[in-house]
Amino acid sequence: MQQVPSFQVIDGQLIGARQIASPNYNQRPEQTEIQLLVVHNISLPPSQFGGGYIEQFFQNQLDWSVHPYFQTIEGMQVSTHLLILRTGEVLQFVNFNDRAWHAGRSTYLAKKECNDYSIGIELEGSDDRPFEDIQYTILAEVIRVLQAAYPKILQHLAGHSDIAPGRKTDPGPFFDWAKTRALIQQAKADQ
Ligand SMILES: [Zn+2]
């Protein structure tokens, strides 16, 4: 059983995550509380894991000539707060107090612009492959810690496809919401 780091949120940073700065963020609108958590999947190239391309992409350092797919996303400036790799390692690209660019045009409970008030978590994965058990374990623990730090997200956990239906499909059919919710409850009980 892989060790789960003891995560902690301090000043918008997740202690226990590897910090990598993305330039793709700005300020949240004034007096906007964090009240939603959005789960995504990403892999570069699609359905290929490892390689470090996602990290390069979020830092605007991806060499677009490396793979034909990269040319289809050339110049895109996006980010996420957190990325959970297949190994379970957690990377943080944007401080939680800042607005990461992960959701795009989106609506949650009739409230637009989800980037303004959400935290984005990307799982290294795809719509056509199961996620790793360690990713679920780590995700649940990270969500537990984030919910403690930002109580308004307690009831508000969504997939990218939920807030941008028709436009986005991630985290995809292989993402197991029931398992995720059960593991979050278990993480809370273990405290
Ligand atoms: Zn997404």
UniProtKB/TrEMBL annotation:
Report the principal subcellular site: cytoplasm
Which CDD domains does UniProt cross-reference here? PGRP (cd06583)
The EC number(s) this enzyme carries? 3.5.1.28
Keywords noted in UniProt: Cell wall biogenesis/degradation, Cytoplasm, Hydrolase, Metal-binding, Zinc
Q: One GO cellular component from the entry?
A: cytoplasm
* Main EC class the enzyme belongs to: hydrolase
An annotated GO BP: peptidoglycan turnover
Q: Name one GO molecular function term.
A: N-acetylmuramoyl-L-alanine amidase activity
Catalyses which reaction(s): Hydrolyzes the link between N-acetylmuramoyl residues and L-amino acid residues in certain cell-wall glycopeptides
| Subcellular location(s) of the protein | Cytoplasm
Write down the InterPro entries for this protein, in alphabetical order: Amidase/PGRP_sf, Amidase_domain, NAMLAA_amidase_2
Stored NCBIfam families: PRK11789.1
Q: Which family does it belong to?
A: Belongs to the N-acetylmuramoyl-L-alanine amidase 2 family.
- State what protein this is by name: 1,6-anhydro-N-acetylmuramyl-L-alanine amidase AmpD
